[in-house]
């Protein structure tokens, strides 16, 4: 006797699927549970989850409110003192940071934050600095040089 042949699901665990459109005696004959006429009675119809039967849909009924500043927002790239210390350089500017993969764009605003410590004096050139970053750079004997803001075209 092969035990794999004798395997059967537990009693009551399986159910026969509904066989639609197999005569009135099946309980799902004639219209096969689709109702009378209309789009959903035809083949190829799909009931879309968000469709509301011609009623004004929710995404159009809800008012569009608030304010979006996306058009005018400026990208600020953040660099911590840990990342600058890991470079082991004497002078660090946005071009160097981009070359080493610390930031994506050298032309965008770069802000240095005071996360971590600097083991030696480093001259850091950036658009902005946090107060703690300036304190830690100067405590290590370095300089924090702020870039002049560029004029925006537009």
User: What's the end-to-end separation, in Å?
Assistant: 85 Å
**How would you sum up the major sheet?**
3 strands, parallel
The total count of strands amounts to 6
Order of helices and strands: HEHEHEEEHE
> On the 0-100 scale, what is the average pLDDT?
90
Estimated helix fraction: 10-25%
Give the second-level CATH assignment, the architecture of the domain at 77-146: Ribosomal Protein L15, Chain: K, domain 2
Work out the strand percent: 5-15%
Unreliable spans: none
**Helix run count:** 4
Rg result: 34 Å
- Secondary structure category: alpha/beta
Arrangement of strands in the largest sheet: 1-3-5
What can you tell me about this protein's structure?
The chain has 154 residues and is of the alpha/beta class. Among the domains are: 21-57, no CATH class; 77-146, Ribosomal Protein L15, Chain: K, domain 2, CATH 3.100.10.10. Helices cover 17% and strands 14% of the residues. The chain has helices at residues 58-61, 81-87, 94-99, 131-139, and strands at residues 76-80, 91-92, 109-113, 123-126, 128-129, 143-146. A three-stranded parallel beta sheet has the order 1-3-5. The protein has a three-stranded parallel beta sheet with strand order 2-4-6. 12% of the residues are buried.
